[in-house]
Amino acid sequence: MDNLEAVLAAAILGQCLLTISLLAIKKDPQPIYAPLVVFFAAFIINSVGTMLDIFSFTTTNAFFKYAFDIFSYISLLLLSPALWLYVRNITSPSMIHWKKRDLLHLVLFL
After folding, report:
1. Digit-coded pLDDT (tens) for 35-62
2. From residue 14, how far is each of 17, 21, 43 by CA, in Å?
3. Which residue range(s) make up the domain with 6?
4. What's this model's pTM, rounded to 2 decimal places?
C-alpha cells in the first residue's frame, strides 16, 4: 500500500509542478489564474507531506513532522476558496477587480 501511495503522491507532485510552471509563463494581463496557482500549491504541500510520511524522513525529528502536518492541514483550507475564486474569475463576463470582501473567503485560512 505504501508503494501505491508513494506513486500517487509523486504523480500529484509532478502534475502540480508542471501546471504551476505552465501557468507562471502564461502572458495574460489579467491575473485570473492566480487562484489556480494557489490551489495547486496547496496540493503540492499535501503531496510532499504524504511523501515525507511514507519515506519516514520525519521520524528522526518529531517537531518537524508535527510542524509540517499542521502546515499541510492549514493549506487544505486554501483549496475551496482558491477554486471558488478561480471559477468566479473565468465565468465572469467582465474583468474581475479584487475587493476586500473577497478576503472573507480566506477567513478560515487566516
Report:
1. 888 889 888 888 777 777 777 655 567 7
2. 5, 11, 11
3. 2-106
4. 0.74
Q: Could you give the number of structural domains in the chain?
A: 1
Contact present, 71 and 45 (Cβ < 8 Å): yes
Pairwise CA distance, residues 92 & 77, whole Å: 24
Q: How many helices (H) and strands (E) does the chain have?
A: 4, 0
In a 10 Å sphere around its CB, with 0-12 CB exposed, 13-18 middle and 19+ buried, how is residue 15 labelled?
middle
Taking residue 63's Cβ as centre, other Cβ atoms within 10 Å add up to 8
Measured between alpha carbons, how far is 75 from 69 in angstroms, rounded to an integer? 10
CA distance 49 to 96: 34
CA distances from 22 to 16, 33, 37, 46, 58 (A): 10, 11, 10, 20, 31
Amino acid at position 50, single letter:
T
Residues 6 or more apart in contact with residue 83 via CB below 8 angstroms: 35, 39
Angle between helices 34-54 and 79-91 (to 10 degrees): 150
Q: How confident is the model at residue 78 (pLDDT cuts 50, 70, 90)?
A: confident
